[in-house]
Write a structure and sequence with these properties.
heterodimer, A: mainly beta, 11 strands, B: mainly beta, about 0% helix, about 55% strand
Chain lengths: ~120, ~110
Protein backbone atom coordinates (compact mmCIF):
# COMPACT_ATOMS: atom_id res chain seq x y z
CA UNK A 1 0.00 0.00 0.00
CA UNK A 2 1.48 3.36 -1.01
CA UNK A 3 2.16 5.84 1.76
CA UNK A 4 1.22 9.49 2.00
CA UNK A 5 2.68 11.45 -0.89
CA UNK A 6 3.43 15.14 -0.72
CA UNK A 7 4.47 17.37 -3.58
CA UNK A 8 6.58 19.30 -4.11
CA UNK A 9 9.24 18.23 -1.62
CA UNK A 10 11.15 21.50 -1.77
CA UNK A 11 10.27 24.92 -3.00
CA UNK A 12 11.53 28.47 -2.76
CA UNK A 13 9.25 31.47 -2.99
CA UNK A 14 9.58 35.19 -2.40
CA UNK A 15 7.57 37.34 -0.04
CA UNK A 16 4.14 38.21 -1.35
CA UNK A 17 3.82 35.17 -3.58
CA UNK A 18 1.43 32.32 -2.98
CA UNK A 19 2.05 28.59 -2.83
CA UNK A 20 -0.03 25.44 -3.21
CA UNK A 21 1.03 22.16 -1.65
CA UNK A 22 -0.47 18.82 -2.51
CA UNK A 23 -1.08 15.67 -0.48
CA UNK A 24 -2.29 12.24 -1.56
CA UNK A 25 -3.39 10.16 1.45
CA UNK A 26 -3.17 6.43 1.89
CA UNK A 27 -5.86 4.67 -0.10
CA UNK A 28 -9.01 4.37 1.99
CA UNK A 29 -8.10 7.15 4.40
CA UNK A 30 -10.66 9.92 4.35
CA UNK A 31 -9.10 12.20 6.95
CA UNK A 32 -6.23 14.47 5.97
CA UNK A 33 -4.51 16.82 8.41
CA UNK A 34 -1.89 19.48 7.82
CA UNK A 35 0.81 20.58 10.24
CA UNK A 36 3.44 23.28 10.11
CA UNK A 37 6.82 22.52 11.68
CA UNK A 38 9.33 25.23 12.52
CA UNK A 39 12.35 25.19 14.85
CA UNK A 40 10.80 27.87 17.05
CA UNK A 41 7.17 26.78 17.30
CA UNK A 42 7.51 23.06 16.70
CA UNK A 43 4.60 21.16 15.17
CA UNK A 44 1.43 23.18 14.91
CA UNK A 45 -1.93 22.00 13.64
CA UNK A 46 -3.24 23.83 10.59
CA UNK A 47 -6.45 22.06 9.65
CA UNK A 48 -8.12 18.73 9.09
CA UNK A 49 -10.40 17.61 6.32
CA UNK A 50 -12.76 14.66 6.28
CA UNK A 51 -14.91 13.73 3.30
CA UNK A 52 -14.24 17.07 1.60
CA UNK A 53 -15.26 19.11 4.66
CA UNK A 54 -12.96 21.08 6.91
CA UNK A 55 -13.62 19.51 10.26
CA UNK A 56 -11.08 21.30 12.44
CA UNK A 57 -8.89 24.35 12.11
CA UNK A 58 -5.87 25.54 14.05
CA UNK A 59 -4.94 29.06 15.03
CA UNK A 60 -3.52 30.34 11.76
CA UNK A 61 -4.45 33.46 9.78
CA UNK A 62 -6.82 33.32 6.85
CA UNK A 63 -3.86 33.32 4.44
CA UNK A 64 -3.68 29.61 5.13
CA UNK A 65 -6.41 27.64 3.45
CA UNK A 66 -7.02 24.16 2.22
CA UNK A 67 -9.43 21.87 0.51
CA UNK A 68 -10.07 18.22 -0.05
CA UNK A 69 -11.27 16.56 -3.20
CA UNK A 70 -13.67 13.67 -3.66
CA UNK A 71 -10.74 11.23 -3.99
CA UNK A 72 -9.49 12.43 -0.56
CA UNK A 73 -6.48 14.20 -2.04
CA UNK A 74 -5.89 17.52 -0.34
CA UNK A 75 -4.23 20.80 -1.12
CA UNK A 76 -3.23 23.65 1.09
CA UNK A 77 -2.59 27.17 -0.06
CA UNK A 78 -0.70 30.01 1.55
CA UNK A 79 -1.22 33.44 0.05
CA UNK A 80 0.84 36.58 0.48
CA UNK A 81 3.82 34.66 1.81
CA UNK A 82 5.83 36.05 4.71
CA UNK A 83 9.34 35.15 5.82
CA UNK A 84 7.87 33.44 8.86
CA UNK A 85 6.01 30.99 6.66
CA UNK A 86 9.28 29.21 5.94
CA UNK A 87 8.71 25.75 7.40
CA UNK A 88 8.26 22.07 6.80
CA UNK A 89 4.61 21.46 5.96
CA UNK A 90 3.50 17.97 6.86
CA UNK A 91 0.41 16.19 5.68
CA UNK A 92 -0.98 13.19 7.51
CA UNK A 93 -3.82 10.84 6.76
CA UNK A 94 -5.76 8.63 9.12
CA UNK A 95 -8.56 6.14 9.03
CA UNK A 96 -10.90 6.79 11.96
CA UNK A 97 -14.03 8.81 11.45
CA UNK A 98 -13.65 10.36 14.90
CA UNK A 99 -10.85 12.96 15.10
CA UNK A 100 -7.70 12.23 17.10
CA UNK A 101 -8.61 8.64 17.89
CA UNK A 102 -6.10 6.90 15.67
CA UNK A 103 -2.58 7.06 14.45
CA UNK A 104 -1.51 9.53 11.81
CA UNK A 105 0.45 8.48 8.76
CA UNK A 106 2.71 11.31 7.68
CA UNK A 107 4.19 12.19 4.34
CA UNK A 108 7.79 13.31 3.97
CA UNK A 109 6.75 16.95 3.96
CA UNK A 110 7.11 19.96 1.72
CA UNK A 111 9.93 22.25 2.76
CA UNK A 112 9.05 25.84 1.91
CA UNK A 113 11.64 28.60 2.00
CA UNK A 114 10.43 32.17 1.67
CA UNK A 115 13.04 34.74 0.65
CA UNK B 1 -0.63 25.88 21.87
CA UNK B 2 1.81 23.15 22.84
CA UNK B 3 0.22 20.76 25.24
CA UNK B 4 2.75 17.95 25.35
CA UNK B 5 6.15 18.86 26.72
CA UNK B 6 8.96 16.34 26.42
CA UNK B 7 11.81 16.02 28.83
CA UNK B 8 14.73 16.04 28.33
CA UNK B 9 15.08 18.21 25.24
CA UNK B 10 18.17 16.25 24.23
CA UNK B 11 19.63 12.93 25.31
CA UNK B 12 22.88 11.27 24.31
CA UNK B 13 23.60 7.69 25.32
CA UNK B 14 25.81 4.79 24.31
CA UNK B 15 24.54 2.09 21.99
CA UNK B 16 23.02 -0.75 23.96
CA UNK B 17 21.85 1.46 26.85
CA UNK B 18 18.21 2.23 27.56
CA UNK B 19 16.70 5.63 26.74
CA UNK B 20 13.84 7.15 28.68
CA UNK B 21 11.87 10.19 27.58
CA UNK B 22 9.06 11.86 29.46
CA UNK B 23 6.04 13.81 28.34
CA UNK B 24 3.69 16.02 30.34
CA UNK B 25 0.39 17.42 29.16
CA UNK B 26 -2.25 19.75 30.49
CA UNK B 27 -5.80 18.75 29.64
CA UNK B 28 -7.93 15.62 29.57
CA UNK B 29 -7.04 13.27 26.77
CA UNK B 30 -8.53 10.25 25.08
CA UNK B 31 -5.15 8.95 23.96
CA UNK B 32 -1.47 9.74 23.86
CA UNK B 33 0.81 8.84 20.97
CA UNK B 34 4.55 8.77 20.39
CA UNK B 35 6.15 9.56 17.05
CA UNK B 36 9.70 9.46 15.74
CA UNK B 37 11.17 11.88 13.22
CA UNK B 38 14.46 11.41 11.45
CA UNK B 39 16.15 14.65 10.51
CA UNK B 40 13.88 16.82 8.38
CA UNK B 41 11.61 13.99 7.34
CA UNK B 42 8.06 12.91 8.08
CA UNK B 43 6.95 11.54 11.42
CA UNK B 44 6.54 7.85 12.00
CA UNK B 45 3.96 6.57 14.46
CA UNK B 46 5.43 4.39 17.21
CA UNK B 47 2.71 3.60 19.69
CA UNK B 48 -0.70 4.77 20.91
CA UNK B 49 -1.90 4.38 24.48
CA UNK B 50 -5.48 5.09 25.43
CA UNK B 51 -6.48 7.00 28.53
CA UNK B 52 -7.77 3.84 30.22
CA UNK B 53 -4.46 2.02 29.71
CA UNK B 54 -1.45 2.31 32.01
CA UNK B 55 1.27 0.52 30.07
CA UNK B 56 1.87 -0.72 26.57
CA UNK B 57 4.69 -2.57 24.85
CA UNK B 58 5.77 -2.79 21.23
CA UNK B 59 9.05 -4.54 20.50
CA UNK B 60 11.80 -2.59 22.29
CA UNK B 61 9.37 0.19 23.22
CA UNK B 62 7.53 0.52 26.49
CA UNK B 63 5.11 3.36 27.14
CA UNK B 64 3.48 4.24 30.42
CA UNK B 65 0.66 6.65 31.05
CA UNK B 66 -0.30 8.26 34.35
CA UNK B 67 -3.46 10.30 33.81
CA UNK B 68 -3.49 11.50 37.43
CA UNK B 69 -0.12 13.16 36.88
CA UNK B 70 -0.85 13.95 33.23
CA UNK B 71 2.41 12.36 32.18
CA UNK B 72 3.78 9.60 30.00
CA UNK B 73 7.15 8.00 29.47
CA UNK B 74 8.71 6.23 26.51
CA UNK B 75 11.42 3.68 27.18
CA UNK B 76 13.58 2.37 24.36
CA UNK B 77 15.57 -0.66 25.47
CA UNK B 78 18.88 -1.86 24.02
CA UNK B 79 19.28 1.26 21.89
CA UNK B 80 20.77 1.13 18.41
CA UNK B 81 22.41 3.78 16.23
CA UNK B 82 19.30 3.72 14.03
CA UNK B 83 17.25 4.98 17.01
CA UNK B 84 18.94 8.37 16.64
CA UNK B 85 16.03 10.71 15.93
CA UNK B 86 13.65 13.18 17.52
CA UNK B 87 10.78 11.75 19.52
CA UNK B 88 7.47 13.52 20.01
CA UNK B 89 4.49 12.84 22.18
CA UNK B 90 1.11 13.88 20.86
CA UNK B 91 -2.17 14.09 22.67
CA UNK B 92 -5.68 13.80 21.36
CA UNK B 93 -7.95 15.74 23.62
CA UNK B 94 -11.22 14.37 24.85
CA UNK B 95 -13.10 17.55 24.05
CA UNK B 96 -13.94 16.97 20.41
CA UNK B 97 -10.57 17.28 18.70
CA UNK B 98 -10.82 20.89 17.59
CA UNK B 99 -7.07 21.38 17.71
CA UNK B 100 -5.99 18.18 16.03
CA UNK B 101 -3.27 16.21 17.74
CA UNK B 102 -1.15 18.47 19.92
CA UNK B 103 2.58 17.78 19.71
CA UNK B 104 5.32 18.60 22.14
CA UNK B 105 8.63 20.06 21.00
CA UNK B 106 10.36 16.71 21.14
CA UNK B 107 13.35 14.97 22.62
CA UNK B 108 16.38 14.73 20.37
CA UNK B 109 17.99 11.34 21.02
CA UNK B 110 21.54 10.60 19.92
CA UNK B 111 22.89 7.07 20.16
CA UNK B 112 26.69 6.99 20.28
CA UNK B 113 28.21 3.90 18.63
Amino acid sequence: KAGVTQTPRYLIKTRGQQVTLSCSPISGHRSVSWYQQTPGQGLQFLFEYFSETQRNKGNFPGRFSGRQFSNSRSEMNVSTLELGDSALYLCASSLPAVPNTGELFFGEGSRLTVL
Amino acid sequence: SQQGEEDPQALSIQEGENATMNCSYKTSINNLQWYRQNSGRGLVHLILIRSNEREKHSGRLRVTLDTSKKSSSLLITASRAADTASYFCATGDSGGGADGLTFGKGTHLIIQP
